[in-house]
Write a structure and sequence with these properties.
The protein has 387 residues and is mostly helical. The chain has 18 helices and no strands. It has a single domain (2-164, 175-373), classed as Growth Hormone, Chain: A (Up-down Bundle).
């Protein structure tokens, strides 16, 4: 619900797609920096306890958003400031959370676990924005923030019930440990290719920052129709992940990622070209289904190739790409729309996704050739640390 409420509050204060896009920058920079270097902390502490602390801070930040809404502070600095702090905390919280699945499931269940993880995320994004649109129309944005703050009780309870999740041998945090994670990614070309494929799709094809402007231009600026635009992407995500049983077991995960990235781009192009609200929703459903399929494949590929002692660092890099670059994509979309138009920004971004998927397939051929049945390469950094 906050994903809906904060951009809408910024739009209501500024009526600027660029200002909404700057939220993406406020999320992306802290997320990329903290997730890229903070993964070594995840690999050296009790991951469950770290998530409990981070989630508690997130809950407190939601309370701050509710207070500023009730107090009618109407200050962009508060919204951007809370977003930055939340992103710093999230740069540790999200990588730590993502280590839970492979620690709790067997290797043969990682694909199914990834699908369930994506299903739950998109399920929340499907219900949250739609509910937020109805709540905003009835009681205002402040109620959205209050509900979000209260919902953290469920998250805290769920994490508290987990066992301790520590790595067998934690590395001492420092530059050498950070570099070790990046060396692993550089050595394993399918992992590097998967991160590049995700980065290209999210950098060029993220239209979320343009939803308020497009909703105002084409669909009457109704809060309910705006909520359904975000919901449509999540509906596609639920469908894509819920029907991903065969996809999660495919032997050609890298090739599947490139195909799904192209379909995502084509869905965004169709969304940018239509003035029909049902057609716009359908295009976003298609794009969301392709995106969730790509995430399931990427998660399965990366998690299956990453040793547990490096999982926090590699997952941090994956988060920096998946979330951080996506938010940079929102900023890029807002900037392009500011100098051209909403339509040009959306359509050109979708076309760029298709082109980028083809280029990655050509220049990182090991991604398209990778098979899940291939023997897992030895971890050279493990040999280095032993020596």
């Amino acid at each position: 619900m906050t994903v809906y409420a904060v951009p809408l509050q910024v739009w209501m204060l500024t009526h600027s797609s660029f200002a909404v896009g700057l939220l993406g920058l406020a999320i992306a920079v802290p997320t990329v920096v903290v997730a890229s270097v903070g993964g070594v902390i995840v690999d050296s502490v009790d991951r469950r306890r770290l998530v409990l602390v981070c989630t508690s801070i997130h809950a407190a930040l939601s309370v701050v958003l509710a207070v500023q809404a009730y107090g009618q502070w109407d200050r962009l600095s508060v919204l951007y400031g809370v977003t930055v702090v939340s992103s710093v905390v999230g740069g540790l919280n999200a990588p730590a959370r993502r280590t839970f699945m492979p620690a709790l499931l067997g290797a043969e269940q990682i694909g199914a676990g990834a699908a369930l993880q994506v299903f739950s995320i998109h399920g929340a994004l499907m219900v949250g924005p739609a509910l937020a649109g109805l709540v905003t129309a009835a009681g205002g944005l402040r109620v959205c923030f209050v509900i979000d703050a209260c919902s953290f009780a469920f998250s805290l309870y769920g994490v508290a019930r987990l066992p301790r999740l520590t790595v067998p041998r934690g590395d001492r945090p420092g530059p050498r440990a950070i570099a070790e994670g990046f060396r692993f990614i550089g050595h394993h070309r399918p992992v590097l290719g998967a991160l590049l494929a995700d980065a290209s799709a999210t950098l060029f094809g993220m239209p979320v920052a343009l939803f308020p402007a497009l909703n105002a231009e084409r669909f009457g600026a109704d809060p309910t129709t705006l909520g359904l635009l975000s919901t449509a992407v999540a509906v596609g995500g639920v469908l894509g992940s819920g029907l991903s049983g065969r996809t999660g077991r495919t032997d050609r995960r890298g090739l599947g990622m490139l195909i799904a990235g192209s379909v995502w781009g084509l869905g965004i192009v169709a969304f940018g070209l239509t003035w029909s609200y049902p057609a716009a929703l359908a295009a976003l459903v298609l794009a969301g289904a392709a995106d969730s399929t790509s995430v399931v494949l990427r998660t399965s590929l990366v998690q299956s190739l990453t040793p547990d002692r490096l999982r926090g660092r590699v997952t941090g890099a994956e988060l920096a790409v998946g979330m951080g670059v996506a938010q940079l994509g929102n900023t890029e979309a807002g900037a392009v729309a500011a100098v051209t138009s909403t339509t040009v920004s959306i359509v050109s971004g979708g076309l760029a996704c298709v082109v980028a998927a083809g280029l990655i397939g050509v220049f990182v051929p090991s991604l398209a050739r990778h098979k899940a049945s291939d023997p897992i390469e030895a971890d050279p950094s493990a040999q280095t640390s032993k020596s």
